[in-house]
Amino acid sequence: MSSGVAKISVTKQNPILKTVIKYPVLPTFAFFILMVIVFIVLSPANRSGQNIFLSPTNLTNIFEATAGISIGAFAVTLVLLVGCIDLSAGAIIALSSVTLALSLETGMGLFTAILLTLAVGIVCGALNSLVAIKFKVPPFLATISMALVFTGFTYLISGSRTLLIQEPQLVRVFGSYGSGASFLGLPVQLCWTLVFLFALFLLINKSKYGRWAQATGGNIQAAYSSGVNVKMVQTVAFIVVGLSCAFVGILFCARLSAASANFGSDYTLYLIIAAVLGGTNFSGNGGNVFGTLLGSLVMGVLTNGLGIIGVNIHIQLMITGVVIVCAVVFSIWIANKK
Question: Which domain holds residue 205?
Answer without folding.
Answer: 54-337
